[in-house]
Each structure stands twice: as C-alpha cells, then as structure tokens.
Amino acid sequence: MLKDSFNRVHDYLRISLTDVCNLRCQYCIYEEHTSFMPPHQLMQADEIDEIAKVFVKLGVKKIRLTGGEPLVRKDAEDIILKLSKYPVKLTLTTNGVFADKFIDTFKRAGINSVNVSLDTLNSDKYLHITRRNVFAVVWNNIQLLMQEGFHVKMNVVLMRGVNDMEILDFIELTKEHPVHVRFIEFMPFEGNEWSEGKVISYNEILENAGEDYSFIRIADEKNDTAKTFKPLNHEGTFSVISTMSAPFCGNCNRMRLTADGKMKNCLFSNGEADILSALRNAENIIPLIEECVKSKAHSHGGQFNGEYKAVDPSRIVNRKMINIGG
Q1: Comparison of pLDDT for 196 and 151, the residue scoring more
Q2: 230: phi > 0 → left, psi -120 to 50 → alpha, else beta; which?
C-alpha cells in the first residue's frame, strides 16, 4: 500500500502513452508545427506492462490511459490488452476521433467507461479550438459508445469567452442522452496563457446551471474529484472538477506516469522520479515509487495554495499539460 506523509492511500495510476495528439487544441498544443518526444524516449509496451505490474503489487486498483491522444500509438491495442490482465479498473481518456476503431478492443479488455474530451458543441468553434475539422466524427463516436453500452464521461474544459456560454447546452445533452458531462476548471500550465479571469468557477457553473435546471447533488464516492449533479428527469448527469476554486486535494489518491516514464505525485508537482531509466538499468523501482509518493505536497504540488485568484502562473514550474498526460 502506497501512503504519503498525510496518510493518503494512493491506488490510482494514470499512464500517458504518448505526448502526440492528432488535434492541435490551442490551450494544449500552442503551435501547429510542434515537436514530440522521439520514440526511443517513450516507455515501450513491455516496459509499461512491467511498471504497471509493480504498481499493482503496491496496491493500485485503477489505471487510466491518457496522452496526448493514447489511441494514436500503433501499439495501443497491445498495451490495452496487456494491462487488462491485472485486477484493476482499466479506463482511458481520448479525444474520440479513433474510438470507433477500438470498440472491440475496449470490450475485450473489460473497459466499460470512457472519457471523451469535447469542449464545444459547435462545429465551427470546434475547428477553431482544435484546428481540425472532425467534430462530426467525435460526436458520432460519442453516440456509438453510448449505443454500445459504455459509460461515457464528456470532459469539457471551460474558458471564459470561449465556451462558457455553452454550459446550458451541455446540460441539455443529458436530458435525452445517458452522458455524464464533466466541466473542468481551466488550470495553469506552461504556455497555455492561463489567467484567473479565464476560470469559470464551481459556484459560477452552478449559478449558471440553476437558471434553467433543477438538480440534486449526488453523494461523492471516496477520492472523487468531480462534484456530481443529477438534473431532474434527465438521463445523464453533470459534474464540476473544481481544481482551482474548490480543491479536492485532501483525499487525493492519484499518481501519474508521463510518456517518457517519469513519475509525478501530483499534476502540479515540479519534481519527478525517473522510473523508466531505473527499469532500463535493471534497478528496483519500488523505492523510487515509494519515495515519490511520500514526498507529495498537501496540495497543488506545493506550488500554490488557497485563493486561485492570487495564483501567479509565471512562478509555476511544470511541464506542458500534453507532456504530463491528462
């Protein structure tokens, strides 16, 4: 069992398969022509399997695959099926473009819940945000996943002046569709031009939702990051991941592996443990994992605390979001 100095048990591992993405979302990949990690620098399929096996032995009960876009890896199917043999809840986050090609793989791997990132329901705005004209593909794949019986969570990063006017439209989706919309507060990362004024806070989202809908709060499960609500007479739900305005660090159970095999004990941590190099050098990686967890700060990687409006993004030392993994 992995515990930090605040006695938090860590049993959830997020593994980034690649920093490559087929989209070019402006708040994530800031230049159309950008460079990605060379293939030899990435964890290979057998290495991911070996590292995951160690984490499972240390008590991990859930693994989420992320990116970049995890499904762009040529060996994504192989990795998914390798990890499916472990007694964990296996899931992933995707932009949805290739989801239809992996339906059978998901089913073979026992994956029954998929997170799909979709920041707008407007095709023109989608093209503006992602620089790719594939909105129809993504929306069709979301519907396909629902039809095939998957629990679909839709991740929506809210940004003032970009998509905050669509909050009610996303909630309306849950009326006829069993989709679970998750509004995510805009977070500061290298180069994404974050400012506190662009954050749509938890309270603001609820006030906006309350203008048109009546809803009830669904009881949180242990380690939940999302505060979830059920609109009356709707098939689905909506949630708020309030990282900035109402943090949930006190019961955090998450660890991250970047695509190049570095372990981060928090999304905002500026320190990393080089798990992949140790593995390739035939070293015991367990002490590295344990020490990384024990060194975890109480909140936000120790880089900021308290009122998000006082955060100075220029003082945060971290990777770009795409180099960490969603």
Answers
A1: 151
A2: beta
**Into how many domains does the chain fold?**
1
Q: What is the pLDDT of residue 30?
A: 59
Q: pLDDT over 90 for what percent of the chain?
A: 80
Cα separation values, 15 from 64, 128, 234, 324, Å: 6, 29, 33, 9
pLDDT tens by residue, 158-189: 999 999 999 999 999 999 999 999 999 998 88
Give all strands of the β-sheet with 273-274 in edge-to-edge order.
215-217, 226-231, 237-241, 179-185, 151-158, 113-117, 89-94, 62-66, 12-16, 254-257, 262-264, 273-274
Measured at the CA of 103, the angle between CA 100 and CA 104, to 5 degrees, comes to 135
The closest of 199, 191, 190, 197 to 247, measured between CA atoms, is 199
CATH code of residue 86? 3.20.20.70
> What gap in Å lies between CA 139 and CA 30, rounded to an integer?
24
Listed as own residue / partner, the contacts of 33-39 with beta carbons closer than 8 Å and 24 or more positions apart are 36/68, 37/259, 37/260, 37/323
For the segment 6-27, the average pLDDT, to the nearest whole number, is 91
pLDDT tens digits along 122-150: 999 999 999 889 999 999 999 999 999 99
Domain extent for 11 = 2-324
Residue 255 near residue 13, CB atoms below 8 Å: yes
Are the CB atoms for 113 and 153 separated by under 8 Å?
A: yes
Question: Residue 238 contacts by C-beta under 8 Å, 6 or more apart in sequence?
Answer: 170, 171, 174, 180, 181, 182, 183, 209, 215, 228, 229, 231
Phi, psi of 32 (to 5 degrees): -60, -45
Q: Could you give the CA distance from residue 43 to residue 36 in angstroms, rounded to a whole number? A: 14
CA distance 25 to 111: 26
Distance CA 314, CA 312 (A): 5
Question: Higher model confidence: residue 28 or residue 177?
Answer: 177
Please name the amino acid found at residue 112: N
